[in-house]
Design goal:
The chain has 323 residues and is α/β, with parallel strands linked by helices. Helix 2 packs across helix 3, helix 2 crosses helix 8 and helix 5 crosses helix 6. The strands form three sheets. Strands 3, 5, 6, 7, 8, 15 and 16 form a seven-stranded mixed β-sheet that branches. It has a six-stranded parallel β-sheet with strand order 11-10-9-12-13-14, sandwiched between helices. It has a three-stranded antiparallel β-sheet with strand order 2-1-4, with no helix packed on it.
Length: 323
């Protein structure tokens, strides 16, 4: 079968022929229709993600959309190695599939599953969000961050505050409050902290942080200086800033009501993540959340692999066997 194959660790995939999978007990065979390219999917496929357990060569892609042998359309995750989602067929644990709503198309489902579910899991599972709460989203202009804005609004947030580097993109999100920052400028962190203070004066219930780094530290510092006693659940989701480490003074945590937690592969169970995907699909099917996409053919994998993550690149699989 035709597939996008990663030959060695750290290499981009190339189109080639790979043996077809055969489903064993507890597995299902899926005719793949579409697979989106997320940061985690690309890095895991290349063996460069913290959760990677890759042995090469392998078929790239960790999730997608396809049909079961009875024609049921499903989203699927974590194909059994060495099979991935960027191929005509793959096999997965039967438990790692989610039926698609009838009104949802394959491209949208493939594109929205990963970023929406990561935001849903962080907000609902890790932060225990309740309607009426205030949510601050750091790194809100990225794919997951912009979906987090939509999800928080759809679930009844009292106020949504967005922060990030691009002021014009922040305004386009139509949140209740916005604060841009430039950490490369003189005293950039302090300026950002000062800009935040009046915005968060009444307190913040949840922070969803996709950036980490200096901006995250500035947010925690600002929260520690507010006079409200409201508990803030600060959820670290990613490190898009490129800063894996920060110098977090213990005084910030000792002098505040910040609860610092993470949300990711090891902190959210697979069952909870699949539930998050199912709930995200329901929101998308009702038009509550949306995502922009750009579609590529499997033969265009090199271009798709190097494309920006916004709009979300989605690879459509054309079957040579006519399925």
């Amino acid at each position: 079968m035709k597939a996008a194959i990663v030959r060695e660790k750290g290499m981009n995939p190339v189109i080639g022929q790979h043996e077809a999978p055969i489903a064993m007990a507890g597995q299902v065979l899926i005719n793949v229709e579409a697979a989106a390219l997320s940061r985690v999917s690309k890095y895991r496929s290349m063996g460069m993600h913290y959760s990677s357990e890759a042995h090469f060569p392998l078929v790239a892609g960790i999730d997608g959309v396809g049909t079961l042998q009875d024609g049921t359309r499903v989203y699927f995750a974590l194909p059994n190695p060495p099979f991935g989602s960027l191929a005509e067929q793959t096999i997965v644990n039967a438990k790692f599939t989610v039926p698609l709503p009838d009104s949802m198309d394959n491209i949208t489902a493939a594109a929205i599953a990963n970023p929406a579910s990561s935001s849903w899991a962080a907000l609902l599972i890790r932060a225990s969000f309740k309607a009426g709460q205030t949510v601050l989203i750091n790194g809100a202009t990225g794919v997951s961050g912009s979906l987090a804005v939509q999800i928080a609004k759809a679930l009844g947030a009292h106020k949504v505050i967005v922060t990030g580097r691009d002021e014009s993109k922040l305004r386009a999100l139509k949140a209740d409050e916005a604060a841009a920052f430039d950490m490369t400028a003189d005293n950039g962190a302090k300026r950002f902290e000062s800009a935040l203070m009046p915005i968060i004066a009444e307190g913040v219930d949840v922070v969803l942080d996709y950036l980490w780094g200096d901006s995250a530290l500035a947010i925690m510092s600002a929260l520690a200086k507010t006079k409200t006693a409201r508990v803030t659940r600060f959820v670290s989701i990613g490190t898009s800033s490129g800063q894996e480490d920060i110098a977090l003074p213990s005084a910030i945590l000792r002098s505040s009501t910040i609860e610092l937690v993470g949300s990711g592969d090891k902190s959210v169970s697979k069952a909870d993540m699949l539930s998050a995907i199912r709930e995200s699909f329901e929101l998308a099917a009702r038009g509550k959340i949306k995502i922009d996409t750009k579609v590529y053919a499997l033969e265009e994998i090199e271009e798709a692999w190097n494309a920006p993550l916004m709009p979300r690149p989605v690879v459509r699989i054309q079957h040579t066997n006519g399925k």
